[in-house]
Amino acid sequence: MTEQAIIEFKNVSKQYPNGFMGLKDVSLQIHPGEFVVVVGLSGAGKSTLMRSVNRLHDVTSGDILIDGDSITKARGKDLLAMRRKIGMIFQNFNLVKRASVLKNVLMGRVGYYPTWKMVLGLFTKADKQRAYEALQSVDLGEKAYTRADQLSGGQQQRVAIARALTQEPRILLADEPIASLDPETTRKVMDDLKRINEQMGITVLINLHNVELAKEYGSRIIGIRAGHKVFDGPVAEATDDVIDAIYGEEEAPS
Ligand SMILES: Nc1ncnc2c1ncn2[C@@H]1O[C@H](COP(=O)(O)OP(=O)(O)OP(=O)(O)O)[C@@H](O)[C@H]1O
Q1: Which residues line ligand 1 (CB under 6 A)?
Q2: Where is the ABC transporter domain (predicted)?
Q3: What is the rounded CA–CA span in Å between residue 9 and residue 15?
Q4: Sheet holding 7-15, edge to edge
Q5: How far apart are the C-alpha atoms of 183 and 231, rounded to whole Å?
């Protein structure tokens, strides 16, 4: 018996309103606990793929299943419940700069409260505890009351990771999370993601430009080129020839 995929793309295509095809007939399955790195040239469709998973982008055709349920077709409360399972971090951190680190991390609980409680900032003790614990897990417990914009870029990204963890997700999407960071902080963020994957069993899907880091941290690589999936396999199979085919100069498939 094969284990149920936590993320499944079935013949997914995405056409932007201007007619450009961001994804072309992509099918894939990701299983619980995997650490999958998506690589490809700038503009290949990596972010489009990532943002389709939690419906930051709607796809044009095909279906995306989360734990076997279609997120493509989900509406209202069902969509909200599915999105709770999916945390996300971004290249530019997306923190509320003038708010404290703790407030930012608590935002990870937004999907669990009605709007009026959020407006009044009425978080439960249990949620505050969750937020502290998430901050501690990225080694930033002592920064809880610091304003987010007082932290370094690497620290801000780790606050964003803590915010995603507070959501108690099963999947973590990371869209170019280290693109704005220097090499040293890059490692710290990647190490945090790896630890979260291994110790908490959270499935990680991450876009990276850097193939070396993709090979070092990933268990599996997906290569995207001009909207097509052109490679999907374990890191050991991502040979130089494979990487050349993902990044190379020759004509991309249409
Ligand atoms: N809203 C949009 N309308 C039209 N085209 C878009 C839109 N968003 C993205 N695209 C195009 O879709 C293609 C894929 O974009 P995407 O951001 O997914 O690429 P990427 O592989 O993540 O690139 P990068 O590494 O530079 O972020 C690009 O050619 C981009 O210009």
Answers
A1: 16, 18, 20, 22, 40, 42-48
A2: 7-251
A3: 16
A4: 21-30, 7-15, 61-66, 69-70
A5: 27
Q: State both tokens at 206.
A: 């991450």
Q: Which residue has the tokens 């971004």?
A: 90
User: 37, 48, 58, 176: which to mutate for ligand 1, most atoms within 8 A of CB?
Assistant: 48
pLDDT tens, position by position, 29-69: 999 999 999 999 999 999 999 999 999 999 999 999 999 99
ipTM above 0.85, yes or no: yes
Could you tell me the domains of the chain?
Answer: 1-85+169-254 (3.40.50.300), 92-168 (no CATH)
Answer left, alpha or beta for residue 117, where phi above 0 means left and psi between -120 and 50 means alpha.
alpha
Q: Which of 15, 23, 37, 46 to mutate to test the pocket of ligand 1 (most atoms within 8 A of CB)?
A: 46
